[in-house]
Amino acid sequence: MTDIKIDIDNGESAVMPTATTVGEALSELLSNKQRKRTVAVTVAGETLDLGTPLNTDSSLSLIQIGSDESLEILRHSTAHVMAEAVREIYGKDVKVAIGPSIENGFYYDFECKEPFKPEDFEKIEAKMTEIVRKALPFTRTEMCSDDAIKHFDDLGENYKVELIRDLGEDTVSLYQQGSFTDLCRGPHLPNTSWIKAFKLQRVAGAYWRGDEKNAMLQRIYGTAFFDKKALRKHLNTLEEAKKRDHRKLGKELQLFTMQDEIGPGLILWQPKGALLRKLIEDYWKDAHYRNDYELLYTPHIARQDLWKTSGHLDFYAENMYSGMDIDDVRYQLKPMNCPFHIGIYNSNKRSYREFPIRWCELGTVYRYERAGALHGLLRVRGFTQDDAHIFCTPEQLENEIFNILDLNLEILKTFGFDQYDIYLSTRPEKSVGTDENWEQSTEALKLALEKKGLSFELDPGEGVFYGPKIDIKIKDQLGRSWQCSTIQVDFNLPERFKMSYTGSDNKEHQPIMIHRALMGSLERFIGVLIEHYAGVFPLWFAPVQARIMNITDAQAEYCEEVYMKLRKAGIRIEKDLRNEKLNYKIREAQMEKVPYMLIIGDKEKDSGTVTVRLRNGKNIADMSIDDFATKVADECLEGRGI
RNA sequence: GCCCAUAUAGCUCAGAUGGUAGAGCGCAUCCUUGGUAAGGAUGAGGUCAACGGUUCAAUUCCGUUUAUGGGCUCCA
Fold first, then answer.
1. Is residue A473 within 8 Å of residue A400, measured between CB atoms?
2. What are the pLDDT digits (tens) for A430-456?
3. Residue A215 DSSP symbol
């Protein structure tokens, strides 16, 4: 038997016999403490569990508790334990389908006669705890596919059989712990006792392999951690997220509402929400003016012929509402603004000297969304995109993308988002446009991202059929991701609408068209903003900036005076002159998250000042009314990044 | 669209083996004039989501519809 050399990424190395397992090697090379933290290793890019024998010289990278990979392995193993528990409890009444780890947890899909109820969780969790306590090892075996198919077929596990058939491999790997064996690539924990903290969270229907033509399975979601504290922290974050839910806060703060009589997915903006939206729109228009855009307004409906020309009736019909007849001509609601902007483009003959043309519009569109997809402000049927279209020459493309990214990040930063994930999506299988077009534009997007110093992930084949795109997912204060910004190059519409410009060579050329939305839609963006700030909006776009409250009726007149003065100064001010105690008024304003409370008693009345109370409970000593107005105005400018 | 759950006062929620309902907050009126997170009293608010069925009787049981929530799928 020959020996092999094993080294690990902390510098230790040893020569050991062939077929030494990873775990044995680690026992040799690591301190007890380190070993107990090591969940698995990577060797030459492959993740191996501790039971894997090593047959050649190997360099091991440790996957230790605390890393994302370690959590993935833990959760995957916990999914297996849950499947074992479910099988133990329900026996042949359930079939197992598939159970991976996902962001923040894991799930396992089951086919069963009776859907699971949250009450069943206790039973399953108790069984899981039993399995964990037994410290059952996860053991891996390789089996030829035919044998594996027979094995699962005998058990009646037709989903596993289908998976193995589709894999089309000669051999597959199986993992067993206790009474449960699963088709699985691994890796897994050494044994079940490594699972220190887990919780089953909810049950939901899910199609087998995500295809709605397939059977509906029962999916149980759960999560797991290496210690109870981390689990508790995670559950707290979920609680916090619940408190920040924009649907809840939207109701409490009276920002928006939806009603059965009006229809699902249609938003009614209440006065405070409408004001919030107006402030955001004003900022947006201003930022676009500063960045050399021009503002457009376009109608909400157009002749059906327009949507034939644009191709929307061919490839977007299922998202469009049925038409209406006006004077015997068919019209349809717009699902997009682009054809209208193109109409304006085509209203004149264009020269390269006008380029780049940057046109923006807060364009309200209507799209059919499946009933089950609707969600608060985040997914609605009528919404306003912060849309813009840029028309330019191929040479200008990279610079225009750079400018868009610049404006995009500026706007996101102004609203308190400075963490994001960026994706560059390339040509899909079904697409229009020449190879040259695709290559040049994809390259331009890439160069612009690099020039801006932004790291991004490539999303191969995920572009839209008409061109490559950049998507930006912003991260909120709880670390959750939201897709808002999108920047897309379009080779399709310029062709369909026969757009052209006269170049310096006095010949006609087709312009490059860029679609982009930075906030995505005002509805979604405001929904995300509500959750990001938990309703505690920065002064510059808080719908109410200050509320005046008197201590007794004796100051009512002076309060009215202050109120009018500040209102005229442009401060978004309210007054609370009710016959209530100060405590009561403060509590109410605090719960409504009003940034400044102006408290007025005899003292202030006599000196012609106001006492300012902040949302954090602190006071600013008396200040004059003018000083307060200046302070608010200054803070707003600062907030808007001007 | 599909699976599961839910729908009671403006809001948050109780409620009865089937006999037309209650609390707190909010709202109105009155007392109270109180300096930094809820002073007190009285009162007005409900076709118990809609429609149909079973029943002497349905808010309660059954069915359908609508909406909402958790997911699948899709997306700004």
1. no
2. 888 888 989 999 999 999 999 999 999
3. P
Query: Which among A521, A517, A524 has a CA at the least distance from the CA of A338?
Result: A517
Is the C-beta atom of A593 closer than 7 angstroms to strand B? no
Give the helix/strand (H/E) hosting A626: helix A625-639
The CA distance from A563 to A560, in Å, is: 5
> For A287-318, what is each residue's pLDDT tens digit?
999 999 999 999 999 999 999 999 999 888 88
Nearest nucleotide (C1') to the CA of residue A102? B71
Q: What is the pTM of this model?
A: 0.90
pLDDT above 80 for A117: no
Distance in Å, residue A373 CA to nucleotide B7 C1': 20
Query: A369 CA to B58 C1', in Å?
Result: 36
> Strand B: which residues 64-93 of A lie within 7 A (CB)?
none
Q: Which residues of A are catalytic?
A: 338, 367, 385, 387, 389, 469, 515
Strand B and A613 CB separated by under 7 Å: yes
Kindly report which amino acid residue has its CA closest to the C1' atom of nucleotide B33. Answer: A552
Residue whose structure tokens are 């390339």: A426
Q: Which nucleotide is nearest to A251 (CA to C1')?
A: B11
Is residue A1 very low, low, confident or very high in pLDDT (cuts 50, 70, 90)?
low
- Hey, what are A178's tokens? 């206790």
Predicted-complex ipTM score: 0.93
Chain mean position to CA A479: 9
Within 13 Å of residue A153, how many CA atoms lie on the same side as its CB?
10
Give the span between the Cα atoms of A106 and A103, in whole angstroms.
Answer: 8
* Local structure of A346: helix, strand or coil: coil
* Nucleotide lying nearest to A217, CA to C1' measure: B3
